[in-house]
Every structure is written in structure tokens, then in C-alpha cells.
Amino acid sequence: MIELKRTELLAELEQRSLYGSLLVVGGPGAGKSWLLRRFAEQRRAAGDAVLLLLADDHNYVESLSQLEESLKTPAGIIPTLKAYAGTHKFLILDALDALRAEASQRVFRQLIRQVHRDLPEWKVVASIRSFDAKESVELQQLFPISSGESTNINARHIVVPVLMTRRWGSEATGSKTRPCSRFGFPGSPGDTPQCL
Description:
The protein has 196 residues and is α/β, with parallel strands linked by helices. It contains eight helices and eight strands. It has two domains: 7-162, Rossmann fold (3-Layer(aba) Sandwich), CATH 3.40.50.300; 163-196, no CATH class.
């Protein structure tokens, strides 16, 4: 096994998130959730306001009020976020692609819309699989692409690439790289990819 650190990707997310909301996209198991957790940890350590929500924990909600009940925010999520203190403020939504019910997808899009409208100082950073990001026109509209950007996903985003490693001796033989995937078990750090 090889432990790969993704410091450049984390630094890019930190830098780009300061200037606006964005999506974190990639294939299944690419490390989107890992990246968002590390980002949240670093921002908290820097004294920023951070709320990290795992979307699949709220897959059953059909309205914003149900989401607020699920989050135990009786005052409402927008007033709760307004009360957060910090130099920079980040609402982090992990695994939007896990929301399979249209009603719950709509609720999270409504939340993003409200945060953009009512809390402009808050940046929304959300992860989703590349395929789902390409297919969701509504999400693309919530994360408009910056002028001059040209990508295959019509939204402001960064890509978490599939982890790659070289076979032993590949430098000498010129053999190809191969993908790595993550295997997480209860109690495991989850930071180490297993290369196949």
C-alpha cells in the first residue's frame, strides 16, 4: 500500500473557495469526502465558521423545515448560520449524489439558493459525482462558471482525479499507471488508498 497526500488539491480548494462557492467533482471513490473533511478541519483550525453536512444523512427530507428538524435547528438553518462567527464562512455539503429522491435533491438546492441569496458571506462547497454534476442543469446554475473557464462541466468546480500509482519498476520499463481505490473499514483512517 502507498499513502498519497493530496496537499496540492487541498491548497487549490482552499484558494478557490475564498472567491466563491464551488462543486468538488470526481468519480466514485476518488476522495471527494476525504478532501471535504480535510478542508473543514483546516478551516476550523484557522478560526473560520464551518458547517459540514452529509447529504445522505438527510435523504428522506421533503422540505426545508424537515431538514431543519433533522438538523435540530429550531430557529431555522439561515438564522443559525447567521449566528456563526468566523473570518470566512463555509457550508460544506458532502455527497449530493447520494440524494436519490427528487424531493430531497430539491430541498438541498433550495438550501443552496437561500444561502447564496441571504448569506452572501457564506461560501457553499458541495461534492458530487462528475456524471451527476454534468447532468444537473439546476446545480450548474447554482454554481455558475467563472468567465474564461472552459470545462466539460458547466459549473464552477474542481476535479478530484482518480488516484494513480505506478507499478514497481515502471520508471525503468515505461509501464502504465493503474488506478487506486479506497477501502474503508470501521476504525481505519481512510486516508490510504489500496492500489489494485
